[in-house]
Amino acid sequence: METNNVKAFGTESAQASLNEIKIQRRALTSKDIEIDILFCGVCHSDLHTARNDWGGTIYPSVPGHEIIGRISKVGDAVSKFKVGDLAGVGCLVDSCGVCPSCKKDLEQYCVPGFTGTYNGKDKHLGEYTFGGYSEKVVVDENFVLHIPENLDPAAAAPLLCAGITTWSPLRHWNVKKGDNIAVVGLGGLGHMAIKLAKALGAKVTLFSRSPEKEKDAKDIGADAVVISTNAQQMSSVKAKFDLIIDTVPYAHDVNEYIPTLNVSGTIVMVGYLGPLDPMLNTVPMILGRKSVAGSVIGGITETQEMLDFCGEHNIVSEIEIIKMQDINEAYERMLKSDVRYRFVIDMASLKNN
Ligand code: NAP
Ligand code: ZN
Which residue has a Cα nearest atom 22 of ligand 1? Predict the structure, then answer.
């Protein structure tokens, strides 16, 4: 298959820093779209992948799955987009299309597995996919999103992962006006969860380890902040929440949050991937019919629904724009929870370098 050389930023190993590299993008098939990338958000999953925290990273690795740009080319059979449109690509670029999940617009739960925007098996080139830390990307139109033109494209980029990852559980658990919702961790996902839950009419509490984030949390829309290391504050919200969205990226004690769930409440894990340590105690779950659940990103239809909702309600991310060359420092700051509240790469810094 014909390919084109594209500039990108990636890493050769878990220990190495990210540097400029060249990658190949396929020439357009009839259903493909080429996007000239303007901005790409920096998700904690990018860092987990670059540093092989989850195992299975193939190198060189080019992260980035919060992609916004202008369409520069379309294939002959593309019907939903045209050259010049503002378009987005999130965490998935393909799925089998025929399994029960795909049939229900749940491509994120594709039974044989969806194709990740990076580090996924590339069905076209036979190797693996490279993400949005690059000049251009080529994607099947069925995995491309329309971005409302009224939104600032840089601040809208994080909607493609942080937005949909928190929107999907809010919708699945049918969050509505007056519900009591809590969010654990004020980072990229956490701040989007607050904005989206608030726009759905919920009363929102933030659990955070960081007292210095309290004012920001309230400015973003939280009604209350509970410092999770303060036992007195934790007991003040006993049996309060219908749904908790836990965005913490590393192993932590989930048992501390169970008593804060209402009867029949659910805590949905979207952050940490792996065995819990300490283990879960089932007693408060059984005695309160409480659930511990998980959720991954969202399907394409649901992502478009979320983007349209954000367009109508003028919801975008709180961002700090960085240059591509600053990505290694940005990762270090992310590890210290020093992000307010999403880094977004201005891709002009890569193109013009
Ligand atoms: P982030 O911006 O780094 O935010 C994470 C927040 O969690 C931090 O700001 C901090 O908030 C809190 N935190 C960090 N380390 C902690 C620790 N050791 N113990 C307790 N709290 C801690 O990360 P993100 O981009 O939002 O991503 C969060 C996680 O979700 C990552 O693991 C990422 O891989 C995962 N993710 C999952 C999906 C999915 O589909 N399920 C999609 C995207 C990302 P405070 O300072 O307020 O405590
Ligand atoms: Zn992500």
Answer: 248
- Contact yes or no for 317/159 (Cβ under 8 A): yes
- Determine which residue's CA is closest to atom 20 belonging to ligand 1: 248
Distance 252 CA to ligand 1 centre (A): 11
User: Would the pLDDT of 139 be above 90?
Assistant: yes
Q: Summarize the confidence of residues 15-22 as an average pLDDT.
A: 98
Residue 353: predicted pLDDT: 84
Q: What is the β-pairing status of strands 180-184 and 203-208?
A: parallel
> 129 vs 64, 101, 162, CA distance in Å?
11, 22, 20
Q: What percent of the chain has a predicted confidence (pLDDT) above 90?
A: 99
| Token pair for 53 | 């925290």
Q: Is the CB of 47 under 6 A from ligand 1?
A: no
Asked if residue 193 has its Cβ within 6 Å of ligand 1, the reply is no
**Per-residue pLDDT band at 159 (split at 50, 70, 90):** very high
- Tokens 């190495």 found at: 16
| Contact of 91 with 116, CB cutoff 8 Å | yes
